[in-house]
Amino acid sequence: MVDVRILPDILSNKIAAGEVVERPVSVVKELVENALDAGATRIVAEIEKGGRDLIRISDDGSGMSRDNALLAIERYATSKIFTDDDLFAIKTFGFRGEALPSMASVSKFTLTTREHDSDVGTRIQINGGKIVDVSDAGAPPGTMMEVRNLYFNTPARRKFLKGVNTEMGHIADAFSGMALGNPHVGFRLLHNNRLVKAFSSPADMKTRAGEVFGMATLPYLCKVSMTQGEAGVTGYVSDPSLTRSTSRNLRLFVNNRLISDKGIVAAIFKGYKGRLMKGRYPLGILFITLPFDQVDVNVHPSKLEVRFSDQRQIFALVVRAVNHALSGAERSGSAESLPLEEPEEIEEAIVDGLPHAHPRPVHTSADQRKRAAVVDRSLFQWGKNHGEPAKNKVSELESDLPFPEIERGKSSAPEVAVKPEGPEPGSGKICQGCRPDPVVVGQVMGTYIVLQSDSGMILVDQHAAHERIVYERLKKRSDSYRPPSQTLAVPETLELTYKEADILEQIIPELEAVGMEIEPFGGTAFIVKAVPAIIDDQDVRPLILDIVEKLLESGGDAMDDTREWLDECIILMACHTAIRANQVLNRQEMETLIRDLELCENPNHCPHGRPTKIQWQRQEIEKLFKRIV
Amino acid sequence: MKFSADRKSLSEVLAQVQGICGRKTNLAITSDVLIKVAGSEVIIMANDLETVFQGQYEAEVESDGIISINAKKLYEIIREYPDSLVPLNEIENRWVEIGKDNIQYHIVSSDYDNFPETPLIEDIPFVEIESAALKKMVEVSSMIGFSSDEKRIYVLGALLEKVVDDKGECLRMVSTDSRRLNCFDATYEGEFIVPDENIIIPKKGLSELGKFLDREGTVKIGIKEDHFIVQKRNETMMIKLLEGDYPDYRRVINTEQMTPVEMDRTMLLMVMKRISILSSDDYKSVMFNFKENQLVVTITNPEIGESKEEINIGYGGEAFESAFNPRYFIDALNAVDSSTVVLNVKGAKNPCIIKGLDDEKLVCAIMAMSV
Question: What ipTM was reported for this prediction?
Answer without folding.
Answer: 0.80
